[in-house]
Amino acid sequence: MLSETIERYSKPVPDLQKKLSQSRAGAEKLELRQIKCPNCGFYLLDVYGRDHHYTRVKCRKCKFNEVIDTALFRTVCIRQYRNRHRRRRTRPFR
């Protein structure tokens, strides 16, 4: 009976395995960041790099379903924003 069982998930074909390994190697060089739901802040997906990628996302928590540009959903730490704000020059250049 077990010998007749069909494997549910088979290994990808060799050319697809090559593409997957190239994708993994390319992603290792880029920065990983998380995209969160704009409505509730729930985790949606991981994105590598800072480029513009348009993707449709659906939040499992609040059912937000929309196309987003991942480059516009960058998160800035409050500490970094405050430090950048303090560095502004108040006097004009002479």
What's this entry about, in short?
By secondary structure, the chain is α+β, with helices and mostly antiparallel strands.
Overview of this protein structure:
With 94 residues, the chain is an alpha+beta fold. The protein has a domain of 59 residues. About 6% of the residues have low confidence. Helices cover 26% and strands 22% of the residues. The longest helix is centred in the first third of the chain and has 15 residues. The strands form 2 sheets. A two-stranded antiparallel ribbon has the order 1-2. A two-stranded antiparallel sheet has the order 3-4. The chain starts with 13 loop residues before the first helix and ends in an 8-residue tail after the last helix.
Distance between the termini: 87 Å
Spatial ordering of strands, largest sheet: 1-2
Number of helices: 2
Strand content: 15-25%
Q: What structural class do the secondary elements suggest?
A: alpha+beta
Q: Level of helix content?
A: 25-40%
> How many strands in all?
4
* SSE ordering: HEEEEH
Q: Could you list the spans in which at least 5 consecutive residues all have pLDDT below 50?
A: 77-82
The biggest sheet, with number of strands, parallel, antiparallel or mixed sense and barrel status, is: 2 strands, antiparallel
CA radius of gyration: 21 Å
What does the average pLDDT come to? 77
* Form type: flat
